[in-house]
């Protein structure tokens, strides 16, 4: 049985148990934060009406270095079954399903009679996720409808930017979160805004993720989506959530798309708010700054600094190549490749190695110097022939957190 067949059957069964004729609304959700329901209940035992938990599951796979097999270890981070809760004295039923695959993909069905109940529960468990994340020493990034962001391995040492840029950004971020008393002493609103601007693939997202992954403050992400009303809801939700959990970080992806969605006035009004922005570092990325209203980019107290992530120069390209080569490629060849790859973004510089490896494997041999040089020439042709569209890289996936689960 395929995943889709399995889940379609479960949705139909859930609708039978909690029919619309009795006032039930059914939602589905595949975001991992609902795995925290048992831990939330432990902190609020009075909300538990009944539980039908069939078993705890926690299959975490890892590859053994001594055996050519996958091994499995157990941890209590997954659950199967159904919780029947009273939340704000309103019923809410949560069913956890994990299709028996290697990855143990999460899938939850939720039944409520009042959508406000679901919204309140959603806020409570997001707040709990932040608290758990703080205690466990890892960063949590919350968003209404985008894919979860992986922050593993984020380090300032891994960023390759022009000389001094990494240290300047890092200092600006770290000093802000230490300086509330200084801001107050000089009667300056305690808020900060950065814009990371430049072509796709030049380090904007990696730098933003490094900030989120190393600062360990509550973080909230906004991505553009279709529909003005829903877009404004997402913006207000993120700003309000960041304000409640300040000091916090607010990341706005592809800012230029907010102008296109007629939502820029919402962003402007919220960023002008003094109390609502207290303790918040807002970071926006944009591939096309020319599409953004200058009133947003050029006025301090909204976004105070604009950082330009230009196409990497020779030194940056060489540093990236040296990092990827890890001592396995002749220095002279790396210098040639760095010289010949003028005009490449960092993403394309990394692709030089991936393409060279592909060439060599196709012919059943080791990667050679010629492969790297040929890879550069091939990618040059690809860049030249690529359509000049406004489509940016890293666009959000537009997946709702709670989606009405219709019977197919």
Description:
This protein has 408 residues and is an alpha/beta fold. It has 3 domains: 3-137, no CATH class; 156-308, 3-Layer(aba) Sandwich (Rossmann fold); 314-385, Helicase, Ruva Protein, domain 3, CATH 1.10.8.60. The chain has 14 helices and 14 strands. Helix 11 crosses helix 12 (331-340), helix 11 crosses helix 13 (346-362) and helix 13 packs across helix 14. The longest helix is centred in the N-terminal third of the chain and has 22 residues, at 115-136. The two termini are 17 Å apart. 32% of the residues are buried.
Summarize the helices and strands and which ones pair or pack.
Elements: H1 3-17, E1 25-29, H2 37-43, E2 48-57, E3 60-63, E4 70-73, E5 78-87, E6 90-98, E7 106-112, H3 115-136, E8 141-143, H4 165-178, H5 180-185, E9 191-197, H6 204-215, E10 219-222, H7 228-244, E11 248-252, H8 256-260, H9 264-272, E12 280-286, H10 294-297, E13 305-308, H11 314-325, H12 331-340, H13 346-362, H14 369-385, E14 403-404
Parallel strand pairs: 8-10, 9-12, 9-13, 10-11, 11-12
Antiparallel strand pairs: 1-7, 1-14, 2-5, 3-4, 5-6, 6-7
Name the quaternary structure. Answer: single chain
CATH-level-2 architecture of the largest domain: 3-Layer(aba) Sandwich
Adjacency order of strands in the biggest sheet: 2-5-6-7-1-14
Q: Under the CATH scheme, which class of the largest domain?
A: Alpha Beta
Radius of gyration: 24 Å
- End-to-end Cα distance, whole Å, is 17 Å
Main sheet makeup: 6 strands, antiparallel
Number of distinct helices: 14
One letter per element, helices H and strands E, the order comes to HEHEEEEEEHEHHEHEHEHHEHEHHHHE
Q: How many separate domains make up the residues? A: 3
Large-scale geometry: globular
What would the average pLDDT be, to the nearest integer? Answer: 78
Which structural class should the secondary elements be placed in? alpha/beta
Q: What is the count of β-strands?
A: 14
Unreliably modeled segments = 57-77, 389-404
Helicity level, as a percent range?
40-55%
């Amino acid at each position: 049985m395929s995943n889709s067949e399995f889940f379609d059957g479960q949705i139909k069964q859930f609708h039978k148990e909690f029919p619309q004729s009795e006032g039930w609304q059914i939602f589905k959700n595949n975001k991992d934060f609902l795995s925290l329901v048992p831990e939330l209940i432990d902190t609020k035992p009075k909300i538990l009406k009944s539980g039908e938990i069939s078993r705890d599951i926690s299959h975490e796979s890892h590859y053994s270095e001594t055996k050519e097999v996958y091994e499995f270890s157990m941890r209590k981070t997954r659950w199967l079954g159904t919780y029947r809760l009273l939340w704000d004295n309103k019923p809410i039923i949560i069913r956890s399903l994990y299709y028996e695959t290697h990855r143990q993909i999460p899938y939850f069905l939720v039944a409520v009679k009042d959508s406000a109940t679901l919204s309140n529960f959603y806020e409570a468990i997001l707040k709990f996720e932040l608290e758990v994340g703080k205690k466990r020493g890892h960063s949590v990034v919350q968003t209404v409808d985008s894919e979860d962001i992986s922050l593993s391995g984020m380090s300032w040492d891994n960023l390759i930017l022009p000389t001094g840029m990494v240290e300047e950004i890092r200092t600006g971020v770290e000093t802000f979160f230490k300086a509330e008393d200084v801001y107050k002493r000089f009667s300056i609103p305690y808020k900060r805004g950065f814009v990371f601007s430049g072509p796709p693939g030049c380090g904007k997202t990696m730098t933003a993720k490094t900030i989120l992954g190393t600062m360990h403050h509550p973080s909230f992400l906004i991505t553009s989506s279709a529909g003005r009303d829903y877009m404004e809801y997402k913006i207000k939700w993120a700003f309000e959530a960041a304000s409640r959990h300040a000091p916090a970080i607010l990341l706005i992806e592809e800012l230029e798309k907010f102008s296109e969605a007629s939502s820029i006035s919402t962003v402007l009004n919220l960023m002008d708010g003094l109390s609502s922005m207290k303790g918040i570092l807002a970071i926006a990325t944009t591939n096309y700054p020319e599409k953004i209203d200058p009133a947003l980019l050029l006025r301090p107290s909204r976004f105070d600094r604009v950082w330009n992530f230009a196409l990497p120069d020779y030194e940056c390209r060489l540093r990236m190549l040296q990092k990827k080569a890890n001592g396995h490629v002749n220095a002279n060849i790396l210098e040639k490749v760095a010289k010949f790859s003028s005009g490449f973004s960092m993403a394309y510089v990394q692709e030089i190695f991936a393409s060279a490896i592909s060439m060599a494997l196709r012919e059943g041999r080791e990667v050679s110097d010629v492969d790297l040089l040929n890879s550069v020439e091939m990618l040059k042709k690809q860049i030249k022939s690529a359509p000049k569209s406004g489509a940016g890289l890293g666009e959000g996936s537009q997946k709702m957190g709670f989606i009405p689960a219709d019977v197919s």
